[in-house]
Amino acid sequence: MIKKLKIYGLSLAVILSLNLSCTAIQNSNKTQRGAGIGVAAGALVGGLIGGNIGGALIGAAIGGAAGGLIGRQMDKQADKIEAAVPGAEVKRVGEGIQIIFDDKSGVNFAFDSADLTADAKNNLDAVAEIFLEFPDTELMIEGHTDSVGNDDYNMKLSKRRADAVASYLKAKGVASNRFKVEAFGETRPRFENETKEGQAKNRRVEIGVAANQQMIDDAKAQSE
User: Fold this and answer.
1) Model pTM?
2) What are the phi and psi torsion angles at 181 (to 5°)?
3) CATH number of this structure's domain 9-223, picked from the four choices 3.40.30.10, 3.60.15.10, 3.20.20.70, 3.30.1330.60
4) What is the distance, to the nearest Å, from the Cα of residue 161 to the centroid of all Cα atoms in its chain?
5) Each residue's pLDDT tens digit in the chain (224 positions)?
C-alpha cells in the first residue's frame, strides 16, 4: 500500500521540529489529502523540512477543492508507479508523489558509479510510460550517495546519478522542461552509513511528482 501522510496544522509543525526525519512522513487519506493541506500549512511544514522532495511537495500544495481534484489524479498515477516498480517506495505527499529508488527497486547504483544497469533501465522504461500518460506534472530528481569518500566528490557523483536518470527518461520521450535536477551528495542519508547495507540504500535517486501550472489551472476551473 502507498504510504499515507496525516497533517494536523500547527501541531504537526511542533512534532516535526522535534523529529525532521523524512522517513517519518506519511500521507493523509487519498481523497482528502489534497483538500486538507492549505498553502499556509504547506509553507510552514515545507520550511521546516527544507531542501528535499517531501518539503517541496508539501509546500507546493494549493489545498481546497482544487487540491482534492489534483490529489485524485496523483492517486491514480501513484498506484500505477507502485505496480510498475514494486520494489520502489512510493509515497503520496501533499498533492504530489515521492518515489524512492534504492537497492530494493532495481534502480540503484554500484559503489562509485552513476551507470544505469539493465534492470534500472527496464524499471525506468515503465516509469517513463506513466509520466507520458500523465503529462501535466513537474518532475524533481534528486541524487544521493553514501558517506564513503570526499564530500565534494560525492556531491558531483550524486549529480551524475540524478542526471543519468533524467537523461534516460528524456530519451524515452519525457519532455525536458518537466525536470528539475538537484544533488545532495552524502548530506541526506536515509539509513546509517556504518554498514554496507545502509550504504547501498543511500546510493539512490528520488523523484518528486508535482502538478504543473496547467493541472493546477484545470483543477481550479473544475472546482469553481
Assistant:
1) 0.77
2) -110, 130
3) 3.30.1330.60
4) 15
5) 554 443 323 233 333 333 333 333 333 333 333 443 333 333 333 322 334 888 889 988 889 999 999 999 999 999 999 999 999 999 999 999 999 988 888 888 999 999 999 999 999 999 999 999 999 999 999 999 999 999 999 999 999 999 999 999 999 999 999 999 999 999 999 999 999 999 999 999 999 999 999 999 999 999 98
